[in-house]
Structure formats: structure tokens, C-alpha cells
Amino acid sequence: MKKALRILIVAVFVCCLVAYICGLTACDDAVKEVYASCCRGDGMKLPVKFSKAWAESHGTAFKTSQSLESIAAEVDKFNKKGEAYSARIYGDNYIFIEKTLNGGDMHYYLVTKKQNDVYVFTSLWQKFDFDGKIISVLVPYHFLKTQQNGSSTEHICGVTLKYAYKTDASPEETAAFYKRKNLFDVTVLNDAVYVAADGYTLEAVLKTIDAETFITFNLQ
Question: Mean pLDDT for each consecutive 10-residue tract of the chain (220 residues)?
Fold first, then answer.
């Protein structure tokens, strides 16, 4: 009985120690760099000063006192051998980043401002289940307006098919975004943009209602 009691005490001590260490080392998925993965094995480490960063399913969230303008300026001068970067601010919430390799291959990344000095760094590729097959689709999140939910801002980190999102983009701007990747066959038909890829076609339909434009994504 005494032996069992000693084992129990040791087990409780170990659990408390693990909980304490987790508290010190931030077992809440804390990370030491702000990084996002893209398609074809590409990735990018964001040049930003942050007080805390943690992994999320769609990228890396981080807290910083830097503004969108300051982060964009750091990205613009962050040119490595064989790589060039450019950053453009969209609205009050987004930094759209283009990473271009010497061979001409281009990758997109996005910084989204949430609230309370919290930002999220992601790529613009989203996975969908299409006819039983998981496919990766390029989505122009920076064209979408973030929605206000009470006193907080809802971060758009993934779109829902057939759901209407507010946007300031035109069909021509949407088409130009996809054409720059040189991966797609892009067609504009009336107010719809058709982006043909390997195994699927993304349809982006834009409609104006009461002077506001909405965009809806569908897969075909």
C-alpha cells in the first residue's frame, strides 16, 4: 500500500512539473519565428519584430507593435540571393506579398491584421474536398473585406464555397491576380471569372447589390 501511495505521489508531482514547464515554455503552440508554407514546398519567414508567435492551422499568428506600413517596408527590402520580395497594403487589414524566384516562379503570402496588435501570416492556398479529392485552390483573401463581429474583427483565413463576401475588386482585377501566377487558364465572362486548373475550375462570381460588390467562389 505504501509503495502504491509513493507511486501515486510521484505521478502527481510529475504531472504538476509538466504543467509548470508547459506554462514556462508556452505549450500553446508557441514558435520562435513567423513562418508560412506555400505550395510546391516553398515557404517564407516574415521579417518582423514580435513579442509572441504561435502556430495555427492556417499559418502563424503573432503579436507586434509594428504597423502594417512598417512590416510592408521590411518585406520590400528583404531580398535574399535568388529571391525578390514586394509588399502591397490592401485596405486596413492586409499586406499582400509576392515572392519571386530567379527562375520566375512566384509565390503569394498574406499578413492580416486582426485586433489588439495581433496579426496572422499565411499563404493564399486553401484546401477543398472536391469530388472526394483534396485539392489546393488559390484564393485572393486580400480582396475580401473583413467582417465586424461586435467589437472584434473576424479574420478571413478560409472561404466557404457559395458564400458571398464583400469586396472592392472588379472581375478584371480578380482575373489579373490569377494570370500573374502563370498556372491557370483565366476567362472573364460577364461578371464571372473562370480559373481553370489541373482537375477543376474555380468560378468567382461578382455581383453589385445596393452599391456594394460581393464575390462568391464555386468549384466546377
Answer: 45 39 50 88 91 89 95 90 91 92 87 90 93 93 75 65 93 95 92 95 95 95
Residue 131, amino acid: D
Which uninterrupted H or E stretch holds 126?
A: strand 125-130
Residue with cell 472588379: 170
Give the containing element (helix H, strand E) for 149: strand 147-149
Residue that has been written with the C-alpha cell 475550375 in this structure:
201
Q: Which three cell numbers stand for residue 151?
A: 467589437
Environment class of residue 92 by beta-carbon count within 10 Å: exposed (0-12), middle (13-18) or buried (19+)?
exposed
At 47 the three-state DSSP class reads coil
pLDDT of 49-58, one tens digit each? 999 999 987 7
Query: By CB neighbour count within 10 A (0-12 exposed, 13-18 middle, 19+ buried), where does 89 fall?
Result: middle
**C-alpha closest to that of 192 among 212, 214, 171:** 171
On the CB side of 172, how many CA atoms lie within 13 Å of its CA? 0
Note the Cα 167 to chain centre separation in Å. 17
In whole angstroms, what separates CA 58 from the centre of its chain?
A: 6
pLDDT digits (tens, 9 = 90+) for 5-25: 454 343 434 343 333 333 434
Rounded to two decimals, the pTM is 0.80
